């Protein structure tokens, strides 16, 4: 455990067209344990509704995950800790879903709201990712880029069935139609996968406001070349805005290092700093 180093950074931006930011991002790096996470939610549902749903989802996961590395957790075996991480994610997603549904029931103006969600958690060399909708997670290392999530969307289903190509999906006028979201039904079905990290890597999470403009090849090129690596979040948001910025844009990145000297240009305060309000609400021009 001592050899593992984690650093994390995140940013959300309103974009160039929308009047409100319906994305929400939360991230955290533990100052004492090899434990970090990123949560991104992309809300939908009209004025203030999407922002409310995404905030509920991101805050709920942030709150539940932050409580995890307590005495009981630390006293468990690695296998037990991994099971506890998975259970915590599942429980937090269920709690968020119920809270969104309850808020919809008591506030008619939010009746159409819901949100996507992607969360990535690293404990030691264990990585677990949960997602619902089309917000994504990627992993980059010396072998290249791997997409860790498969969109819950209509165009993804059409691609899986061989009806359209990835390029056609990118250009489709229904590319934003998702098939799963939080706050839609009593039962929510996240996809959860986990991996063991064997070498230094970058974990990258984003909302579809970014992947609308930047394909996997572009994402891979930036993650491979832009340093300090944590500042990729600003580069990605700038690029998406320059290409149109029609949607809100969120990006979070985590450095996992088990080799001395990797990502050495990282600012020390980025390892543990919680996001400030300005990190999650500002317009691009104000950054």
UniProtKB/TrEMBL annotation:
Gene3D superfamilies, A to Z: PPM-type phosphatase domain
Annotated ranges, domain PPM-type phosphatase: 7-256
InterPro entries: PP2C (IPR015655), PPM-type-like_dom_sf (IPR036457), PPM-type_phosphatase-like_dom (IPR001932)
Source superkingdom: Bacteria
Region spans: Disordered: 258-287
SMART domains: PP2C_SIG, PP2Cc
Extent of Basic and acidic residues compositional bias: 276-287
Entry-linked Pfam families: PP2C_2
Protein name per its UniProtKB record: Stp1/IreP family PP2C-type Ser/Thr phosphatase
Lineage: Bacteria, Pseudomonadati, Pseudomonadota, Gammaproteobacteria, Cellvibrionales
């Amino acid at each position: 455990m001592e050899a593992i180093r984690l650093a994390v950074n995140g940013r959300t931006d309103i974009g160039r067209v929308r009047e409100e930011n319906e994305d929400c991002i939360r991230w955290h790096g533990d100052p004492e344990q090899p434990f970090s996470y990123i949560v991104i939610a992309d809300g939908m549902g009209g004025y203030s509704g999407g922002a409310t749903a995404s905030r509920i989802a991101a805050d709920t996961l942030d709150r539940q995950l932050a409580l995890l590395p307590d005495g009981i957790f630390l006293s468990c075996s690695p296998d037990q800790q991994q099971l506890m991480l998975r259970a915590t994610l599942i429980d937090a997603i269920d709690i968020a879903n119920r809270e969104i549904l309850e808020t919809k029931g008591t506030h008619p103006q939010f009746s159409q709201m819901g949100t996507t969600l992607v969360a990535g958690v690293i404990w030691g060399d264990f990585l677990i990712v949960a997602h619902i909708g089309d917000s994504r997670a990627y992993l980059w290392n010396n072998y290249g880029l791997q997409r860790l999530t498969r969109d819950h969307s209509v165009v993804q289903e059409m691609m899986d069935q061989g009806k359209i190509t990835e390029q056609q999906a990118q250009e489709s006028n229904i590319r934003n139609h998702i098939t799963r979201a939080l706050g839609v039904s009593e039962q929510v079905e996240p996809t959860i996968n986990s991996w063991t990290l064997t070498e230094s890597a970058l974990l990258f999470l984003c909302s579809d406001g970014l992947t609308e403009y930047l394909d996997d090849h572009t994402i891979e090129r930036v993650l491979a070349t832009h340093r300090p690596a944590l500042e990729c979040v600003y580069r990605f948001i700038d690029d998406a805005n320059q290409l149109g910025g029609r949607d809100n844009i969120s990006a979070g990145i985590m450095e996992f290092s088990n080799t001395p000297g990797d990502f050495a240009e990282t600012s020390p305060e980025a390892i543990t700093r919680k996001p400030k309000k300005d990190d999650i609400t500002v317009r691009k021009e104000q950054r």
